[in-house]
Amino acid sequence: MDAAIAGALAAVLASLVTAAAAAYGSRGATRVAQEGGVITGYDKLTERLAKERDKAETDQSTAEAKVAALELEVARLRLLVTQLGGTP
């Protein structure tokens, strides 16, 4: 085998190794980018869920206050009916 063929084979081998290293590095970079996207998505979802929970708690408190006010009104009206001689 003469030096030209050996040099050509070495160049081909070097290019194959370089291509394999580039593919491996690209795959790693893609995985890191996907993991970053997943974490960002998780953070956004967690934030949305917390806002929805806070709104649901506020809505529940409002509803409970309305129920309490209506129960007082019912009690007042029953007392009034009783005072007027009726039966509630």
Could you explain the architecture of this structure?
It is a single chain. The chain is mainly alpha-helical and 88 residues long. 92% of the residues lie in helices and 0% in strands. It is built from one helix and no strands. The longest helix is centred in the middle third of the chain and has 81 residues. It is rod-shaped. The termini are far apart. The model has no long low-confidence stretch (mean pLDDT 83).
Features:
rod-shaped, mainly alpha, 88 residues
The N- to C-terminal Cα distance equals 114 Å
Order of helices and strands: H
- Largest β sheet strand count, sense and barrel closure: none
The averaged pLDDT comes out at 83
* Strands, total number: 0
| Shape by Cα distribution | rod-shaped
Alpha-beta classification: mainly alpha
- Given as residue ranges, the uncertain stretches (5+ residues, pLDDT < 50) are none
For this structure, the quaternary state is: single chain
- Helical residue percent? over 70%
Number of helices: 1
The percentage of residues in β strands lies in: under 5%
**Rg (CA only):** 37 Å
